[in-house]
Design goal:
alpha+beta; Cytochrome Bc1 Complex, Chain A, domain 1; 2 domains; six-stranded mixed β-sheet; five-stranded mixed β-sheet; 44% helix; globular
Length: 438
């Protein structure tokens, strides 16, 4: 494999500093002068569960509507304009069986603002004001804000049904992991969203604000000491939480009862959606992340993968065929679009290509292409301030923390034998088929 990508990774000028703002609140600074903007995220890390999923998705939308000092969107927009077009948005993430809610800010780097040295501090103050001093009446969120944002959330949940590819993946995961927290959707369900009241949302807000682990990430040119000082001042209202912990993700190595189930659903569609959920077996006992991501790239996660080149291109059995991996949960999902009458043939070939990997039928070209694709994807993420933050957020909340830069060296060293070992115990647990109405 060519070393250019690896060499370029080492030329990247950023350093990582981790510090504790206060007990239960950690700060990861990714210091770099590569970008003209900086970003700051505040993430409250919670358990993923049905009872709170929709409310945690709704909460940052309501917080974004107004604070005590800036009571509405008009006032907030004016304040952001004064910060040279800074932006603050809701942030909700699902990582394994962790559900994070919070706010994301990006803003111009002070170096590019004439006669201004405080954009970081002012943005941090505004972000924390929205988080800690929301606009309330009688100690409750405003009815208008809750109801209008709840309607928007429900619209987003309903809209997901129109994306049949995404819908099929969500339904497969929901069915496969029905007895696990992972089966819960990042946005919750429509019925759960409907049930939220201003009182219940306010109660949840106070609970997580006092109990949840808070993880803050900054990416930009400011020195870590400056960022920590700004945060300690802005977060002075929030108390220490010495018992705060990152929720653990339950990892099941093998299919329940050792069997593979089938589930068919019918809708008014013209193209079938074949989705298969896999457990990764012993590969998740002590995960080798470099080998896992190269395996996924080689099997179905890239345009040079076995699924893409064989099932889609060579045999024309699918309109698309790809695999995706959740390395926190230990799940792999294969998603494909098929003609209704090609379901069984396409399924057989998807399984056959996995068997090919298990048997080590992997060419040097396939291995090299898979590695190059993964490293290029990481490098592409590193070229965006938000992508850099996302990479480090993902690594820091992992059960087996890793460095996104160092992992590229390990990716380059992955062998066919390691990939075969990864694939050896992967088993399908659920085959889901979204087909047309009878």
């Amino acid at each position: 494999m060519e070393d250019n990508n690896i060499d370029n990774m080492h030329q990247l000028s950023h350093t990582i500093t981790e510090t504790e703002v206060t007990s239960g609140i950690s700060l990861t600074c990714i210091t770099t002068d590569k970008f003209k903007t900086g970003c700051l995220t505040i993430n409250l890390v919670c358990e993923l569960k049905h009872e709170t999923a929709a409310a945690l998705a709704l909460l940052p939308r309501v917080l974004r509507r107004g604070s005590t000092g800036l009571p509405d969107m008009q006032a907030i927009s004016a304040a952001l304009d004064d910060l040279y077009g800074a932006r603050i948005e809701p942030l909700v993430r699902k990582k394994g069986e962790m559900h994070t809610t919070g706010l994301f800010a990006d803003f111009p780097d002070d170096r590019f603002i004439p006669d201004s040295q405080n954009i970081l501090e002012e943005t941090t103050d505004l972000l924390c004001e929205m988080l800690l001093s929301p606009n309330m009446q009688d100690s409750c969120f405003l009815d208008d804000y809750v109801n209008s944002e709840k309607a928007n959330l429900i619209d987003d949940i309903r809209a997901a049904i129109n994306d049949k590819r995404g819908y099929a993946i969500d339904r497969m995961i929901e069915a496969m992991c029905a007895q696990e927290a992972y089966g819960v959707n990042r946005l919750g369900s429509e019925s759960e969203a409907e049930a939220i009241t201003k009182e219940s949302l306010t109660e949840l807000y106070h609970k997580i604000l006092s109990e949840a682990m808070v993880k803050v990430f900054y990416c930009g040119s400011a020195k870590p000491e400056r960022v920590a000082t700004a945060l300690r001042s802005a977060l002075s209202k929030i108390g220490a939480r010495p018992n705060a912990k990152i929720p653990k993700t339950e990892v099941r190595l093998y299919p329940a009862d050792g069997t593979c189930r089938r589930l068919t659903e019918r809708k008014d569609i013209t193209q079938g959606k074949l989705t298969v959920g896999f457990r990764l077996g012993k590969a998740m006992e002590k995960p080798n992340y470099p080998a896992l991501v190269v395996f996924n790239s080689l099997y179905g996660g890239s345009i040079t993968s076995k699924l893409f080149l064989n099932v889609r291109e060579k045999l024309s059995l699918c309109y698309y065929a790809s695999s995706m991996l959740d390395k926190h949960k230990g799940l792999m999902v294969v998603a494909s679009g098929v003609d209704f009458d090609k379901f069984e043939t396409a399924l057989d070939e998807i399984m056959h290509q996995l068997k090919e990997v298990k048997e080590g039928n992997i060419s040097q070209w396939e291995l090299t292409s898979a590695k190059r694709y993964v490293i290029t994807s990481i490098k592409s993420a590193l070229d965006r301030v938000g992508g850099l933050e996302e990479l480090y957020f993902d690594s820091k909340i992992s059960a087996y923390p890793y460095d996104p830069i160092d992992i590229c060296e390990d990716i380059d060293k992955v062998t066919v034998e390691q990939i075969v070992d990864i694939a050896s115990e992967i088993e399908a647990e659920l085959i889901y088929f979204l087909t047309g109405e009878a």
